[in-house]
Write a structure and sequence with these properties.
With 490 residues, the chain is of the alpha/beta class. The protein has 3 domains: 32-152, no CATH class; 156-258, 3-Layer(aba) Sandwich (Rossmann fold), CATH 3.40.50; 284-475, no CATH class. It is 47% helix and 9% strand. The protein is built from 18 helices and 9 strands. The protein has helices at residues 32-58, 64-87, 91-96, 98-119, 127-152, 168-175, 210-217, 231-239, 250-258, 272-275, 284-302, 305-313, 364-371, 380-385, 401-404, 423-428, 434-450, 453-469; strands at residues 156-161, 182-188, 203-205, 221-224, 246-249, 321-327, 333-339, 389-391, 419-421. The strands form 3 sheets. Strands 3-2-1-4-5 form a 5-stranded parallel beta sheet. A two-stranded antiparallel ribbon has the order 6-7. The longest helix has 27 residues, at 32-58.
């Protein structure tokens, strides 16, 4: 329950929150130290277990002393490497998900294990054994991190400071179940006590009472909903700094927690972060090298499919390869290539049209190709030419420009090269309306600010998983919108 007394009737705030059985807004929380101990113990077990099992199985015939030494050395290497992988996290890794830290730790462990095995007697493991350990540790580690995030780690307690109306998007996302792992303990704002309080965000007092509210509610994060908070607010926050909380703006919290930027609340100066002195640069040479190496490997793996896909497309009238003009880096036009997935008369009237649910214009094989994203394989040529990158925002057709420019900062997505896949694609899928485009734009801006080699590799990995699962977004497109283009939703 929440009890609030106005400052005029009582000189302090008596704040008490008790988790009630069946109350989803206030989940039962493990004590932070106990939760941390359980999480770290679980991480150690899911690493050491597979390592010991594989090492003992691969060193049969040797003495038990040698086998124990090998298992101990290997366990230490993998446990330390996984700890380093988790410690190198940041805001980008948090948004990408816990599996990214697991992958980073596994890669570190593989490199260290291979190096140690080459020169340390008693710790030598075959390449097959090392990769088997890597596979088992990744599977166990990813499963444990997902379980711990949902069942073990306590919810991060959020205290909103500022106008509640400015945080309406956040409250909606929490109500829709997108705020897993976060709990809003209340709101502090310079407003009168509302007659009807939001049970998910109760009013706890005025800004001049902020230090008392923080001391009694013990939030983990203080989220500032207003981009222009007065100096008195920061003074109160400093007075309460001993409580051990962190402070973040609403926009930055969305980047950290949800991996997107709410464009409806985006201030103009946010884009300064893209050009800021302390912004970690992602070298164009490194990204270009990743594009060339990745595109070459992907082409070698999929080249046998090209004749088969071309044969399927030829079963209906029309060209095998569809050519379309798209907007690239800095708005420069280039020609994109795709296997045709619709009938030749899909735009018979010369007017571009969105795809719809069970679009009758899709050929029999076109729907399958789209779900598996096989129609986009010819775009590897665009990557080799430098028109596109492996990872980036999806390029739109110039016909969209006049209709999409009403979206805030839409043309700023052209600051980087478009991509064969991207953060917005793996999170949102197809775009079939202006509203869906706005949502994808919020993910594109997150990538614009946080792009790095680690982020690109994580997106490529997630793309593989999406393709293997089958992307059904082509059949989930909303109703058509006049002036849009078929065969260009992604």
């Amino acid at each position: 329950m929440v009890r609030v007394y106005d400052q005029a009737t009582k000189p302090r705030i008596d704040f008490e929150v008790r988790a009630r059985e069946g109350d989803s807004a206030l989940p039962r929380r493990l004590p932070p130290r106990r939760a941390a101990a359980i999480r770290e113990t679980g991480r150690l077990v899911v690493v050491i277990g597979p390592v010991i099992a594989v090492v003992l199985a691969s060193t049969r015939g040797e003495s038990w002393t040698d086998r124990i030494i090998a298992a101990t050395v290997a366990s230490a290497i993998w446990a330390l490497s996984m700890a380093i992988g988790h410690s190198l996290g940041g805001s980008a890794l948090t948004a990408l998900g816990p599996r990214v830290a697991v992958v980073r730790g596994v890669l570190i462990a593989v490199v260290v294990s291979a190096t140690v095995s080459a020169w340390l007697p008693g710790a030598d493991l075959s390449a097959l054994a090392i990769w088997l350990v890597a596979l088992l540790v990744f599977a166990a580690g990813a499963g444990w991190e997902t379980f711990a995030l949902r069942k073990v780690s306590p919810a991060v307690r959020l205290l909103l400071v500022g106008k509640l109306s400015d945080a309406s998007t956040l409250l909606q996302d929490v109500r829709r179940g997108r705020g897993g792992g976060y709990e809003i303990v209340g709101v502090v704002a310079d407003a009168d006590l509302p007659e009807e309080q939001d049970p998910q965000a109760p009013w706890l007092g005025h800004v001049f009472q902020l230090d008392r509210v923080i001391a009694e509610s013990q939030p983990d994060l203080v989220v500032l909903t207003d981009h222009h908070e007065p100096a008195a607010t920061f003074s109160r926050l400093l007075d309460a700094a001993q409580a051990g909380f962190r402070v973040v703006q609403l926009t930055e919290f969305y980047e950290y927690a949800f991996g997107r930027v709410p464009i409806e609340d985006l201030p103009h100066d946010w884009f300064m972060s893209v050009l800021h002195l302390y912004q970690r640069r992602y070298s164009r040479a490194v990204k270009r090298a990743l594009d060339l190496v990745g595109a070459s490997l992907l082409l070698l793996l999929t080249l046998p499919l090209f004749p088969l896909l071309a044969l399927f497309v030829q079963q209906t009238d029309g060209p095998v390869i569809l050519r379309q003009a798209r907007l690239g880096e800095h708005g420069k036009l280039f020609t994109i290539y795709k296997f045709r997935t619709m009938r030749a008369d899909a735009e018979a009237f010369g007017q571009a049209v969105w795809a719809v649910v069970d679009d009758p214009r899709l050929t029999r094989t076109g729907g399958v190709m789209r779900r598996l994203r096989l129609d986009e394989l010819p775009q590897l040529w665009n990557v080799f030419r430098g028109d596109m990158s492996l990872v980036g925002p999806r390029p739109e057709r110039p016909e969209f420009l006049s209709e999409l420019q009403h979206l805030p900062y839409w043309t700023r997505r052209h600051l980087i090269k478009p991509g064969l896949t991207g953060w917005a694609q793996v999170r949102q899928g197809y775009t079939a309306s202006a509203d869906a485009t706005a949502t994808k734009l919020s993910y594109d801006f997150w990538y614009l600010r946080h792009r790095s080699l680690t982020v690109d590799l994580a997106i490529l990995l997630r793309t593989v998983l999406v393709v293997l699962q089958g992307d059904g977004s082509a059949s989930r497109s909303p109703a058509p919108v006049a002036g849009k283009v078929a065969d260009s939703q992604r």
